[in-house]
């Protein structure tokens, strides 16, 4: 399995003695670091499956991310992203996406086109609404959306028959539809913080642990 990890170059300093931080993803990453293959279809030789870009100061993730079709894990947490490339929806092998602790106000509908998603973490942003298209990710079982500005969850999330972990702490949720709750029969862990009004909606779930 091919893994690329790009983090802050701790301990490295410029000539002025200032720590260096990545503000953008090095172009070599989009080329799988090796420049494997040649010609217009060089990306067909790319084998990169995990890309860890956490804890940098990255402000832009390029649409070139589509050139990594075998990517199964993408972690861009703890950066300064204000939006995500729509090309994320073209990553049909993506199973784990972590965009937590950025500067996101919204999530593009295209995110829901990454239908292989199993784990999705968008916590620690300023997101007001989750895109309805997330309902297309039928295998999603672990959703973390804590510390945002959510007031409701889209009805389309009722498609998550495999949902086992849900973290919505630090939002403004006051109610959930019965349709959502009834569909999450495998939910075992709910983190809702002070949203005590939500607890009664899950009283019928015997396996549930509320944290």
From TrEMBL:
Tell me the GO BP annotations in alphabetical order. defense response; response to other organism
Is the Oxidoreductase keyword given for this protein?
no
**Keyword flag Transmembrane helix:** no
Q: Name one GO cellular component term.
A: cytoplasm
Q: InterPro entries recorded for this chain?
A: Leu-rich_rpt, Leu-rich_rpt_typical-subtyp, LRR_dom_sf, LRR_domain-containing
Lineage, top-rank taxon, reads Eukaryota
Record Gene3D superfamilies: Ribonuclease Inhibitor (3.80.10.10)
Query: Could you tell me what this protein is called?
Result: Leucine-rich repeat domain superfamily
Keyword line: Leucine-rich repeat, Repeat
| SMART domains per UniProt | LRR_BAC, LRR_TYP
Lineage here is: Eukaryota, Viridiplantae, Streptophyta, Embryophyta, Tracheophyta
